[in-house]
Design brief:
about 475 residues; alpha/beta; 2 domains; 6-stranded mixed beta sheet; about 40% helix
Length: about 475
């Protein structure tokens, strides 16, 4: 599997009321980030298409919420099976669109299937409770599906982000209208087809593309949708939240972060650096929990930076289809320009390039794995999420100083701590103002644990049982058990 010429890029359509629609005016083209070739075109939904999708979702909700839990779970498990069976067909399309290595594409496809299986079982665990009251009053609490969901997902995880939202919606008994990113549409469409083939009733899942502002206003301001969920940037999250406020509907926002890595003086720098390179540069650093600020105790700082740069410069960068490639391209030209701007700014503020710091080749959006040393706090990269293959490093004198720097930004999604001190591990885990902390490991919560941010990094949680607080409403039923 070493040549993309063997794979035909599918035609992109709108999925409305169980049918694919292909004859719409093109909105934009899809480009291959590895060679800049045009893969296909994305259709633009009309306002009538959006209204049709909303009406379909309303009908689908009435069917789906009344379906027995065991039947809903069966359909979700079947969709997961189809995703796994088609992984070798979907992965090349995934790599064509985003540039990920085939192994990274296959890994995300499997991760997406695990969300479906876990949530399918969670259907049986959306428990209510009985509230003890004095007879003849009987009181109990139930959780009911909130209603049709408007879900917006990003280009960097074009299957796992839709999977989180579709899976949770279906498990809770909701229908969902998905607006995927136009940069990576085919992966989302192939994923949606798995649900149709699994027997999902029409209208329960609709997929639309179009002008982002037009689509968001139509879906969010409609009285039909009852929850708005986004995985995306802070700016877009604020915009959708303002729109949702006009119809008093809740939001679930998983937004940007700037994940700090706190490295204590008592660790094995070589081992931490090796682990950091494996996690930092996967997907070319284009994922929300990617480490993006390395705050290293001064006594081991030089050794750590040297080790990090050593391992980073050994990574093989290239087309995701090529054998042995460990890091693919950035998603677009604008991401390449963003990396150049951030590095130039950091160097202008006194930072040193330990390795990388330049584009690779002259075709495709490849950027070298980059390690920046001695980055001052006023450099943009210490205050803006890079979302790319750049690892800025700065020395600290204590872990308290590292903690203060970590919490200095008005965002907090993920953080990583490396220490052999039990006291430091406990203190930093508690005091870091983020939604998830990983100690002595690089990882991100899966299907069974909540993931989300604090402050401007989001509202609510995806994953785990806590997720269903967003996808359900809590109803208290009081009954006076007497004849009347």
């Amino acid at each position: 599997m070493n040549s993309k010429r063997h794979y035909e890029y599918p035609k992109i359509g709108l999925l409305i009321d169980g049918e694919w629609i292909y004859d719409r005016v093109p909105l934009c083209t899809v480009e291959n980030p590895s060679d800049e070739s045009v893969l296909g075109q994305v259709p633009r939904a009309t306002l009538q298409d959006l209204q049709n999708a909303l009406a379909s979702s309303a009908r689908g909700f009435e069917v789906w919420r009344k379906m027995p839990p065991t039947e809903r779970a069966t359909i979700m498990h079947q969709a997961a099976r189809l995703v796994r069976e088609r992984a070798l067909e979907i992965a090349p399309i995934f790599t064509l669109e985003l540039g990920k290595t085939l192994n990274e594409s296959l890994s995300e496809i499997e991760r997406s299937a695990t969300f479906l299986d876990w949530d399918a079982e969670q259907i049986r665990r959306l428990y209510g409770r009985i509230v003890p009251t004095d007879p003849p009053i009987h009181q109990h609490v139930v959780h009911e599906p909130i209603g049709p969901v408007a879900a917006f997902t990003p280009w960097n995880v074009p299957m796992s982000a839709p999977s989180r939202k579709i899976s949770a919606s279906l498990a809770a008994g909701c229908s969902v209208i998905l607006k995927p990113a136009e940069e990576t549409p085919a992966t989302a469409c192939l994923f949606a087809q798995c649900f149709l083939d699994a027997g999902l009733p029409k209208g329960v899942l609709n997929v639309v593309f179009g002008d982002p502002d037009e689509v968001s206003r139509a879906l969010v301001l409609s009285p039909i949708t009852r929850l708005v969920t986004l995985t995306g940037s802070i700016g877009v999250g604020k915009h959708l939240t303002r729109l949702a406020a006009d119809t008093m509907k809740p939001v679930l926002m998983e937004l940007g972060g700037h994940a700090p890595v706190l490295v204590d003086e008592d660790v094995n720098c070589e081992e931490v650096a090796r682990l950091a390179v494996n996690w930092k540069f996967r997907m070319a650093g284009q994922f929300c929990s990617a480490p993006s600020r390395f705050l290293v105790h001064r006594t081991v700082y030089g050794e750590f930076v040297n080790s990090l740069a050593h391992h980073a410069q050994k990574l093989i960068v290239g087309d995701g289809f090529a054998d042995g490639v460990q890091m693919g391209p950035l998603a677009s030209r604008r991401r390449l320009d963003a990396m150049t701007s951030l590095v130039d700014d950091a160097v202008g503020h006194g930072a040193r390039i330990a390795t990388g710091g330049a584009r690779v080749g002259n075709r495709g959006w490849f950027y070298a794995p980059t390690v920046l040393a001695d980055v001052p706090s006023d450099a943009r990269i210490m205050n803006e999420e890079p979302f790319g293959p750049i690892a800025p490093c700065a020395p600290v004198d204590t872990m308290d100083e590292a903690l203060a720097i970590s919490n200095s930004l008005n965002m907090g999604l993920a953080a990583f701590v490396f220490t052999n001190s039990v006291e430091h591990a406990d203190l930093l885990s508690r005091e870091l103002q983020v939604g998830s902390v990983a100690v002595n490991v690089f990882t991100s919560p899966g299907a069974d644990a909540p993931f989300g941010g604090v402050r401007e990094s989001g509202i609510g949680r995806e994953g785990g049982e806590e997720m269903y607080q967003s996808y359900t409403i809590t109803k208290t039923i009081s009954e006076r058990r007497v004849r009347i």
